[in-house]
Amino acid sequence: MVKKSLEKLLVDGKEIDVIATHGSIIDEKYTAEARKIASFMINKLGLSFGNVEFKILDNEQFAEKVALYGTPLPTWEAGQEKVIEENNMKYRQGVLYEMVGHKFYDNIKKEEYTAVYINQNDTYDEILSVMAHVYGHLHIEHNNRLSKSIDANSNKFSYYRDRYREIESRLDIKTVEKMYDYAQTLSGLIDMFPDFHKNKKNDYYSKEHVYPEEDIYDVYKFTLENVRFNPWEKELLEMMYDINQLRKGARIKIMHEGFATFVQDKYAEEVAKYDINTAFKMRKGILEVADVLSPAQLPYYLGFRLFKDIEKRWDEGRHGILYDLLSEEEKRNYLKNENKGLSEILEITKSYTDWEFIFSYADLNFFKSLTREIEEKTNMMIDNLYGGKYPKHILDEIKAANNSKLDPNILRFQLLLETENYGPMVYVPKGSFKGDKLTLRQDLSFLKRYIGKLSDEEREAFEEQAAQMFSLDNKYTSVSLRRLSKIWKIPIELQTMDADGIPLTIESDGSDISKSNDGEGPKFDE
Amino acid sequence: MTSELGDAEDKYRKKIDEEDDLILSSTDIRDINDGKTVIKTIPVKANPTISYNGLGGNGEGDGDGDNGDGNGKGNNGEGGKGDNSKVKVGVDKRRLKQMMENWGLSFSKPGKKDKKLYKLLTTENGVDENQEKTIEAMLDRQMATGYFEKNGFKIDVRDEDMRYNFIEEKLIPNLSATFVIMRDISGSMDTYGEFSATIAGLIEFWLKQKYEDTVKIRYLAHTNQAFEFDPRKKDDFYKLVANGGTSFQPAYKLVMDMTDGIAYPSMSPYKERIAYESEDVFLLHITDGDNYEDNGELYNTLKKLFPRLTKVFYLQVGSDSDEFYKMIKSVDRDKVNEVKSGNDISYGNVKKVLDSLLN
Fold first, then answer.
1. Which of these, A301, A292, A305, A422, lies nearest to A362 by C-alpha position?
2. Are B349 and B199 in contact (CB under 8 A)?
3. Pairing verdict, β A438-442 and A492-497
4. Cross-chain Cβ contact B48/A422 below 8 Å
5. What is the ipTM of this complex?
6. Terminus-to-terminus CA distance in chain B, angstroms?
7. Per-residue pLDDT tens digits for A59-115
8. Coil/strand/helix, residue B240
9. How many whole angstroms separate alpha carbon B310 and alpha carbon A8?
10. DSSP 8-state secondary structure symbol assigned to residue A443
11. CB-hemisphere CA count at 13 Å for A208?
């Protein structure tokens, strides 16, 4: 009934549906608002997305959806996630405004929808602002190459849930949980960067018989292919393999949040044209999230700032080879109204991941202004903390000590390193598997990309740090190796290094752990 | 209300007590005002993965990895060290539950119910309380307000603690329909067979689009008597010709009988009542409009029948008399879609007929 009175929403010539529901009832007020915002997003900013259903939920339902997002099976981990999330929301610690859920197929309407969960405890203005934010997420889910490659579907997951319950009812819960835990350990060995490795393939005419024929980075898959499991074990492991593909989404986190906040900001600008008061509130809400320098908020902060920067540069024509050739003064006076900011940003969202995004768009100038901002903020904080206690010259010393570490180069470097490093990269070396022992080797070859750019002094300091940071010699690894060995039923060895950078081989036969210093250590060269 | 998570929370509680190779830690919920006072401690277990020494804990997940300190600027003011701050209560809900069970306050074991507690929970509001959640909410309140620390555990259920089971009503659309094609087969109608078959077929096609394959089709024929025709021979239905007068009263009476479930004349082996209460019923009447009988009784039948129908399509081919055409409209204007037409299967004519029948 609502829809007829509103204008059609056309994306790529196809009409899409946007509704907001409260339980099983359509919320007409929010539906109308959501469609209005969607129309702004599509027609003014050029975003595109599919059908959307906004589900407005209370805290408990919301916590359940959050728990089911990462672990869609009814396991103890999902229960734990729910308990934590519910308590967090109850005591207003880290309140979630929204969550973009998985796609689902509506059987009555015969269409695919994306479910978006919204907290009903938000205020009316917050919900509108959050809806604008969500459209940014939906645009990336709809267009980004990596995002499209992850097949997340509610109907599939609910089938998995049914299967899991069935397996549980035939066997007992403990047996199934044990296998589930093992699968979670294995899932740390899924290959997150299939596009980054340079695989040395076996020569077609070569007569040597080696196995595996190339370096295998997806150890989980390698396990599925080479270990003999019970049928139910295999099914559970395959299910978990499919579910854990979701982890790849971490590779576009900065872009996701940055773009969504960028779009939200654009909407606040639009609202400001007719309702300055609401727009002010919205802007305040955005800054509360995107202007806070803490590790958890980093994707918002950085992504938002970077998109703003790109928009400005491409609007004013300050990019390209010819621009770079200009002198500093010419650059300052340069102005060429191109207004290509928005189209450049939409182009970025199509195919980039965080690493590529930061590598190609965040130049040194951007990081220079970023460090300046961080410096100002730390100074303000130090004034607040110690202002009354110490005289000025001591305050200045504290400030200088805090800010001396800030270096735009290092900041960029750290960020790039983080975005291609969500956990250790481990692989099965070519020709290493003969059936009696599985060898895993750590891959640190990506460090080469960064070391090459450092001076000798910096390089030495860095290598010392890296050895401490990237060593795998800890109890998590030991327990994991023991578990892996139980899955494979043969000894497992891991070639890594200790905290001093000396090669270290950790071996487990399922019960004991032994360490030795002979072995090749991690791989550093391509 | 069935939940997608099922008993996952119970599994989690059992898992915490179990001894295994998982890594046990805990997460604190702190007072929002000072950021130091611990309101609640939740025990957490984690599956180990192969991980770095430096970049603490496991990977990313969906939660907020607050421990990631790799970027050296985690100075957000609130990360102060809480060494000398007061820590109020660190009891978790699970332990309290165990304590309650020891005191005989368990609501999971029916024999051991505490009378006072039981009374409080059941008699006051005869509705559907969720006892477990109610007690949990009470404990939460007691812990957060410091009541628990002062007085220890006491049963003190207040209005704001009451939790109810929410029963959600779901409306499931009924996707079934019956389509009744009623055809005048008197001698004057024999030339209109092809035309009426076309129109009926197209309407049938439209209904199948809307109701998929759940639409049932019933074929009725009438002169001054009426009967149901065998649906297996539906191709012959439009070639049926008979002599005799025409009367609409028995035809509409027949539809009445079918909805009532009374025995009626039929050539079809299938006899099934039309369940008009639970499904949509559509009626298409094709005739040339000549009714030889009295209209008074017919009007009464129509008055009774129409509330049972979802929509009536009346197609008059050729026009001899307008009397019935006017009458059927007067019974219920909203339910009837009527049209007069010639015997012309041109695109324009068929479109005109369908447009006015189906709006």
1. A305
2. no
3. parallel
4. no
5. 0.85
6. 42
7. 888 999 999 998 899 999 999 999 898 888 888 777 788 999 999 998 888 899 999
8. coil
9. 30
10. B
11. 10
Across the interface, of A87, A250, A378, the residue whose CB is closest to B75 is: A378
3-state secondary structure of B318: coil
Contact A24 B168 (CB under 8 A): yes
Q: Do A79 and B30 touch (CB under 8 A)?
A: no
Average of per-residue pLDDT values in chain B: 73
**List of residues 6+ apart from B45 with CB closer than 8 A:** A76, A80, B15, B16, B22, B23, B24, B25
| CB contact at 8 A, B66 and A296 | yes
Q: Tell me, letter by letter, the H, E, C secondary structure of B261-313.
A: CCCCCECCCCCCCCCCCCCEEEEEEEECCCCCCCHHHHHHHHHHHHHHCCEEE
**φ, ψ at B102 (rounded to 5°):** -65, -35
* pLDDT at B56 (0 to 100): 43
Could B73 and A185 be called an inter-chain contact, meaning their C-beta atoms sit closer than 8 Å? no
Q: How many CB atoms sit inside 10 A of residue B344's CB?
A: 12
CB-based contacts of A201, cutoff 8 Å, min separation 6: A213, A214
Read off the amino acid at residue B128.
D
The whole-angstrom distance between A177's CA and the closest CA on chain B is 9
Q: Which of B1, B2, B3, B5 should one mutate to test binding to chain A, selecting the residue with the greatest count of A CBs within 10 A?
A: B5
Give me the pLDDT at residue A513, please. Answer: 92
- Closest-CA residue of A relative to B64 is A296
Report the residue of chain A nearest B44, measured CA to CA: A80
The token pair that represents B330 in the structure block: 């007067």
pLDDT above 90: percentage of residues in chain B? 1
Query: What local confidence, expressed as pLDDT, does residue A71 receive?
Result: 87
pLDDT tens column, B123-171: 444 445 566 677 777 777 777 777 777 776 677 777 777 777 666 666 7
Q: Distances in Å between the alpha carbon of A443 and those of A198, A360, A479?
A: 12, 24, 20
CA atoms within 13 A on the CB side of B54: 19
* Lowest-pLDDT choice from A69-83, B52-66, B192-206, B278-292: B52-66
| B14 contacts A483? CB cut-off 8 A | no
Cα distance between residue A509 and residue B87, in whole Å: 44
Nearest CA in chain A to B136: A87
Q: How confident is the model at residue A477 (pLDDT cuts 50, 70, 90)?
A: very high
Q: What is the pLDDT of residues A156-201, one digit of tens each?
A: 999 999 999 999 999 989 999 999 999 999 999 998 888 887 665 6
SS3 per-residue string spanning A41-78: HHHHHCCCCCEEEEEEECHHHHHHHHHHHHCCCCCHHH
pLDDT at A309 over 70: yes
User: Which tens digits make up the pLDDT trace of A262-293?
Assistant: 999 999 999 999 999 999 999 998 888 888 77
Residue (of A98, A76, A74, A232) closest to A157 by Cα position: A74
**Predicted model pTM:** 0.67
Cα(A408)–Cα(A372) distance, integer angstroms:
9
CA dist A124 and A102 (Å) reads 25
Q: What is the pLDDT of residue B208?
A: 80
Query: CB–CB of A91 and B73 under 8 A?
Result: no
Cα–Cα distance list, A174 to A26, A485, B18 (Å): 42, 20, 10
pLDDT, chain A, mean: 88
pLDDT of residue B131: 66
Q: Residue B49: which of A74, A406, A476 has the nearest Cβ?
A: A476
Q: Name B13's Cβ contacts closer than 8 Å, sequence gap at least 6.
A: A79, B94
Which of A422, A436, A520, A418 lies closest to A190 in space, CA to CA? Answer: A422
Are A361 and A318 in contact by the 8 Å Cβ rule? The answer is no
